[in-house]
Amino acid sequence: MSVVVVLGLGLIAFARQAPASTSVAPTANDSWNIAYGIYKCDAFLPHLAGTKEKPLDPNFVKYGVNSKDDGIIHWNAKLPATGKDAKLGLFLDTYGVSVDPKGMKFPADQNKGVSYTVAKDKCKDKSGKLVDAQIQVIVWENYDKPDLQKKYITDFNNIRIKNDKMAITIAFVAPGANIPQPDSSSDLAKIGNVGSVTTTTAPKTSTTTAVTSTTGG
Length: 217
Prior knowledge:
With 217 residues, the protein is an alpha+beta fold. Helices cover 13% and strands 26% of the residues. The longest helix is centred in the N-terminal third of the chain and has 16 residues, at 2-17.
């Protein structure tokens, strides 16, 4: 009986430590391209600089996720960045960018190391009045279906990377601002064919998602 108990405990421990199912996309065999942009008030900021391949960044070695000064996330995932563990935060961590509901902060080698704080920095609203800004992330699961989008107002690092040819805009804007797709979305058409995407987001509406969990989902 004691042997059975020990074996059972061992299986439980293994299950807790096992990685996300390798059958859930993206797998380690997938090579995806996702358009991204960082938008402040009324314009996109420069693309994050550097490929993280020279010099070799530890997070790039670990996750296989980077950009090439082109506004595209190249998701050539290794095991820690596959399945339900494929999340936007892995890309942001690789470039040292911090994004949360309080604001966004860049490291010294990106965007001159500036930071934008919700409680301090302002943007103009639709009437031209300076108002307190907020952080939003808009996700299009398929870049060529711009009416199908989802808005996130928290837990940005845990936004799932679910399929190839997504588009993501990280925005510091006035409430109610119109947030466009990244300029680099148009380049996705040149990178392979767009596969079919299944989405449950209602057309011509923006779904707001407030996620508080810090685990995969």
